[in-house]
Design brief:
Layout lengths: L19 H9 L3 H5 L7 H7 L7 E3 L1 H5 L10 H18 L5 E5 L3 H10 L5 E5 L6 H10 L5 E3 L8 H10 L5 E3 L17 H4 L6 H11 L5 E3 L7 H10 L5 E3 L8 H8 L7 E3 L33
Parallel strand pairs: 1-2, 2-3, 3-4, 4-5, 5-6, 6-7, 7-8
Helix pairs in contact: 1-3, 5-6, 6-7, 7-8, 8-10, 10-11, 11-12
Pfam families: LRR_6 (PF13516)
Organism: Liquidambar formosana (Formosan gum)
Protein name: F-box protein SKIP1
């Protein structure tokens, strides 16, 4: 305000003139969603800062999925391509520094790039990926030896062969999550997950259990929800994975209380076990429909998915 009651405009701040170090410091303080929905579009210097490797050591989309109601669009080829494009971009920007990936609905296309350019990867979570196969998992096994956590839940094109390779080539693996969808009561997935994928639920529970028991001796946490393993498979796990502290067998309908008690007696470090937690009469195994058996399981809740 001048002496005559007039006004003078304050000098405007030119955000584009901020140093690269200052910009990366600002971007590092933003949430993942905030970082991806604006700053990169401000100007070239902001885009350059956004691509700084220091901002891309972790790529976590899981929080975005967990905060949204599951959608049929997630299972579409278009959405898969979008996720692949994001993942490949982050891999490129990370400059080899990427250590943690938590994503869903990616494919072999992007995972092949991860295997090639992320030798320091320690955490890989790729739930609900219908087009991730043993081919890309073999590349991960051979080229990401520092892996210590793997989540391949609901990835039905990954077989026990991948588990063997991961176990042999990733000696630091401590956490494995290999959960399946609720095949006893698939109604919660009907209308969202394609029917052909629901019907493709892996049948080789004991083969996977054998692979885990024989090649992953250092596991501390193991999740096998709704696995079709039997007492034989569980025994192999208990004989080979003596360091397991947490074991989740919820929904494993082929196991009895006696099976679990016999197996857990070997696991001297076991602190917590999630048991199947329901009773199914033997006669139910002679039928083809399980829709009337309502079992509790975690469901996707909250808001619309946004990235």
């Amino acid at each position: 305000m001048d002496d005559e009651g007039g006004s003078e405009s304050a000098p405007s701040s030119d955000w584009a003139e901020l140093t690269h170090e200052c910009l990366t410091n600002i971007l590092a303080r933003l949430t993942f969603a905030e970082r991806w929905t604006g700053p990169m579009l401000v100007c070239k210097s902001w885009l350059h800062a956004f691509k700084d490797p220091s901002l891309h050591s972790v790529f976590d989309l899981d929080t975005q999925f967990n905060s949204a109601t599951e959608s049929t669009l997630w299972w579409s080829p278009q959405f898969e391509r979008k996720i692949d494009a994001m993942l490949r971009s982050v891999v490129e920007w990370s400059g080899g520094s990427l250590t943690e990936i938590r994503v869903r609905h990616c494919s072999d296309r992007s995972l092949a790039v991860v295997a090639e350019r992320c030798p320091n990867l320690q955490i890989l979570s790729i739930k609900s990926c219908p087009h991730v196969t043993d081919a890309s998992m073999a590349k991960i096994a051979f080229r990401c030896p520092h892996l210590r956590e793997l989540d391949i839940s609901y990835c039905y094109e990954i077989s026990h062969e991948s588990l063997v390779l991961i176990g042999r080539n990733c000696p630091n693996l401590k956490i494995l999550k290999r959960n399946l969808m609720n095949w006893l009561d698939p109604s919660e997935h009907v209308g969202v997950v394609p029917n052909e994928y629901l019907n493709a639920c892996p049948q080789d529970g004991d083969s996977e259990a054998a692979a885990i028991g024989k090649s992953m001796p250092h596991l501390e946490l193991l999740e096998l929800r709704f696995s079709k393993l039997s007492a034989k498979g569980l025994a192999l796990i208990s004989e080979g994975c003596l360091n397991v502290e947490y074991l989740d067998l919820f929904g494993c309908a082929n196991l009895t209380s006696r099976d679990i008690a016999n197996a857990s007696s070997n696991l001297i470090k076991l602190k917590k076990i999630e048991k199947p937690n329901f009773y199914i009469p033997r006669s139910v195994f002679h039928t083809e429909r399980y829709g009337h058996w309502r079992l509790y399981d975690e469901r996707f809740q909250t808001d619309v998915f946004r990235i």
